[in-house]
Amino acid sequence: MLTHVWGLMAHPQREWKQMHDEHETVFHLYAHHVLILSAVPVVCSFIGTTQFGWGLGAERTIQLNLLDAFYAGIVFYLVILAAVFFMGNVIHWMAQRFVDPPNRRRCVKFAGYVATPMLLSGVVALYPIVWLCLLAGVIGLCWSGYLLYVGIPNFLDISDEQGFIVSSATLAIGVLVLEMLLAATVLLWGYGERIILGLLQ
């Protein structure tokens, strides 16, 4: 797993070609990649929001207690896992227009690996300042977009011309999903206590 993470960040084109011939199941992908990397933003957000609090500017912070942060973390973790699976299905749906489309398993695997930079960018949540988290999210999204464009021909066996259409549409949907994740992050980690108390009442 760590080899693929480094390869995707350092030399993605070569790494995609190497992963192309691996017969990995979706279960193995989640067990050895997605479940672990999805924990990065969750654990970092848990530490950041309980120890430092969200920095909102003007010396104003929102800090959660351990129990509220724990519940928020569980929800956030499940949302990330679902988002990766959803994007895999989006890629599979987009690819159906071509002569020899990849199967759903391969598309979900592809989405799991494409999400790597965005999940790693969650490290900045250790000291959660809103503008810094947004900046890290944008950088992670840009690198994930690059992985998407490089990976479609090298991993999904879709030509560059056809791949441009799939990757552009997928990236547009991915941006919307990321925006929803960022909104969920602010709501869960910034106002988690109020939301949780409201649901329990």
TrEMBL record:
Record organism: Vreelandella subterranea
The organism's place on the tree of life at top rank: Bacteria
InterPro entries: Yip1_dom
Transmembrane segments: 27-49, 69-95, 107-123, 129-152, 164-191
Pfam families: Yip1
Sequence ranges assigned to domain Yip1 in this UniProt record: 6-178
Keyword Membrane: yes
Membrane-related topology note: Multi-pass membrane protein
Protein name: Yip1 domain-containing protein
Principal cellular location given in the protein's record: membrane
Position of the signal peptide: none
Localisation per UniProt entry: Membrane
GO CC annotation, single: membrane
Keyword Transmembrane helix: yes
Key words, A-Z: Membrane, Transmembrane, Transmembrane helix
